[in-house]
UniProtKB/TrEMBL annotation:
Protein name: CCHC-type domain-containing protein
Assigned keywords, A-Z: Coiled coil, Metal-binding, Zinc, Zinc-finger
Bias kind Basic and acidic residues: ranges: 26-36
Annotated coiled-coil segments of the chain: 67-129
GO MF term set: nucleic acid binding; zinc ion binding
InterPro entries: Znf_CCHC (IPR001878)
Domain CCHC-type: 151-166
Length: 205
């Protein structure tokens, strides 16, 4: 056995080993403190953070990944909403244009109705005056009568033929099944089997 005791100084080679071990411990300690200065650094072996209910909290990298996914999802939904908004704007413009066309047609029909009423009044007046008058006056009355009898089957009005109907410009017809102006002929009416008020289109003479 060796005669060395705890009170005796260490041999030179054992001192070097002890000093080297102490230096390694100091270096490791310094490295830990240096790494801990980095933002978001979690020392090895550190248990996950937990909230008040004891549930583990996500790490910084997990939070960053979730935020990226959320931003991407919001961007996709924003694009979808923009597309829908554009479609709605286009449909609104089309509806407004159609409404304007219908208003114009109603104006034309109203003017035609007024014109027909005026011609009818003139005809009645001329007819009363024609009693006992020369034949040339009767011919004028007959001409006016022909204008009124001249009925248009496109708008269901009298005073003109279908070839000169103002509805022709808008590709519209008077539908006997709808009992209104529509963008289809009566024979092609989708409501043909269930007409308004049971109405049936009259036969042409």
């Amino acid at each position: 056995m060796s005669d060395w005791s705890l009170s005796d100084p260490l041999p030179s080679n054992e001192k070097e080993v002890a000093n080297e071990g102490n230096e390694n411990q100091v270096d490791d300690h310094l490295n830990i403190h240096q790494d801990s200065d980095i933002e978001g650094y979690t020392p090895p072996g550190t248990p996950p953070k937990r909230d008040m209910e004891g549930k583990s909290q996500p790490t910084d990298s997990q939070m960053e990944w979730r935020m990226d996914n959320l931003e991407n999802a919001l961007e996709r939904h924003s694009d979808i909403l923009d597309n829908h908004a554009e479609i709605i704007r286009d449909q609104t413009v089309a509806i407004l244009d159609m409404k304007e066309n219908i208003d114009n047609l109603n104006t034309v029909i109203q003017k035609l109705t007024e014109q027909i009423g005026k011609l009818t009044s003139e005809l009645e007046s001329d007819r009363r005056k024609s009693d006992g008058q020369p034949s040339d006056n009767r011919q004028k009355i007959a001409a006016k009568q022909a204008i009124i009898i001249d009925k248009c089957y496109r708008c269901n009005k009298v005073g003109h033929r279908a070839a000169f109907c103002p509805l022709k410009e808008y590709n519209l017809w008077y539908c006997f099944y709808y009992q209104a102006v529509a963008p289809h002929k009566g024979d092609n009416c989708p409501n043909k089997d269930n007409p308004k008020d049971g109405y049936r289109k009259p036969r042409r003479n």
